Amino acid sequence: MAMNDVGRPTRLVAGTGAVAETFTGNKALMLEEPLLFERGSLDTSGVDLPPVPPVPDRLGGLARDAVIGLPGLSEPEAVRHYTRLSRQNYAIDLGIFPLGSCTMKHNPRLNEKMARLPGFADIHPLQPQSTVQGALELIDTLADWLMKLTGMPAVAMSPKAGAHGELCGMLAIRAALDARNDPRRVVLVPESAHGTNPATAAFCGFTVENIPANARGRVDLDALLARLGPDVAAVMITNPNTCGLFEPDLKTIADAVHAAGGYVYCDGANFNAIVGKVRPGDLGVDAMHINLHKTFSTPHGGGGPGSGPVVLSAALAPFAPIPFVRKTAKGTLELVEEDSAATHAGDSFGRMVAFHGQMGMFVRALSYMMSHGADGLRQVSEDAVLNANYVLASLKDLYTAPFAASGPCMHEALFSDDFLDGTGLTTLDLAKAMIDEGFHPMTMYFPLVVHGAMLVEPTETESKASLDQLIGAMRHIATNMLADPDAWRSAPHLAPRRRLDETLAARKPVLGWKEKAA
């Protein structure tokens, strides 16, 4: 009988295909919790309230004429219900989150403490600017860090997400073309770029054309150069790309695009792999968004809008959106809300948001930067790359690693399900089996250039012990899948809910609850 590293047996229940013990000793989420309506009774209340005295009807005929239909639960019942549901959510505070391309790293608690300081947490966007000089200074300081780290002369701070940042950059490119009466409207997007890139370009009115990847997982330079012409407005390229690989020809590409009259948009979602090591501005990039949650450890979304600042080249800086922070002649800071020749270059494409970005994310990001310093940020990217290559080296003898022969990866390791050929099993089956081990699955079926893709990003915040447990579980699953394929077609076996028909759930979701007839 196989044993894991703490002496627990890892075996299947004979004849059932069910897992009795897992490699990690975890048994998924264990707690079974019914719906709120199934726990409570519709004809009782968990709270005793005095009778409501008669009052005049002020609802204009809109008073409820039927029971409200909410289940009555006591306070401990309600607390237990939602606490148990919370245990069915996987989170970075529970364990490693190996989603490739998403960079689910630890959010330092110091950053959270700084964001909750009253001078930042309690301000209002409509306050007089004289009363929020500290906040404006923080935004200006963060902007300065971003420009220095990227080697770019300008930055737009207001976009509230990565895709929103893409939109900002492409609108700036569109405005620059319009300013010179240039009708070109074709955007070239490599296969290895992020999936939002073509959607953003199309949303801005551009026609998108695909550029293939070469056998090494990078953009096909010859194909891209051959397609350049007077109708090409821009190239959108992700570097490092979605295969987890650095694009070494980006400077050559940028020079060629500029010579042809176009612009270079770089998807900076993977900047966390090169921060402190490479400045995109030195590679000829005209616009690049930065996901603060990926590179600078702010929460994903932050309970609301996230933040995706966009750095801009000198050619695009005049077209940046408003508002923006500027220092006055008196040394104070102001938020410029109107675009004119007197306040800006007069060429801004306009406003993207009502106010100026997401203050909570700005505070967290600057706190992260100042905690690490320049040398610390460089080490962050080095450690992220080291961890990803450790995962790649530890699994490539068992999992198919399509680009391992091309050399080291960057911050994420890419595998395919080719090693499962002949078993009838797929990436989805393997991902479901990871749930039984207590892990959130890796990113599946992305990027599209690899069949059955499995993209693993360990980030720099995971220890070797954490990585070893993930690697051990992935090897255990793959080895047993190859030895006994039939036992894994119905995973997960230990989760509160078993294998679902996800296609049916997406096409015919049940959005309401009705009590079953007795």
Nutshell version of this structure?
Its EC number is 1.4.4.2. Helices cover 32% and strands 9% of the residues.
Task: Explain what you see.
The chain is α/β, with parallel strands linked by helices. It folds into two domains: 1-37 and 89-106 and 374-501, Aspartate Aminotransferase, domain 1; 123-357, 3-Layer(aba) Sandwich (Aspartate Aminotransferase, domain 2). The chain is 32% helix and 9% strand. The chain contains 14 helices and twelve strands. It has helices at 36-39, 75-87, 109-115, 118-121, 133-150, 162-179, 196-203, 221-227, 250-259, 292-295, 359-395, 427-436, 464-483, 502-507, and strands spanning 154-156, 186-190, 207-211, 232-238, 263-267, 287-289, 310-312, 324-327, 333-336, 413-415, 443-444, 454-456. A seven-stranded mixed β-sheet has the order 1-7-6-5-4-2-3, sandwiched between helices. Strands 10-12-11 form a three-stranded antiparallel β-sheet. Strand 8 (324-327) and strand 9 (333-336) form a beta hairpin. Helix 6 (162-179) packs across helix 7. The protein is globular and about 70 Å long. Residues 381-481 form the Glycine dehydrogenase C-terminal domain. Residues 181-301 form the Aminotransferase class V domain.
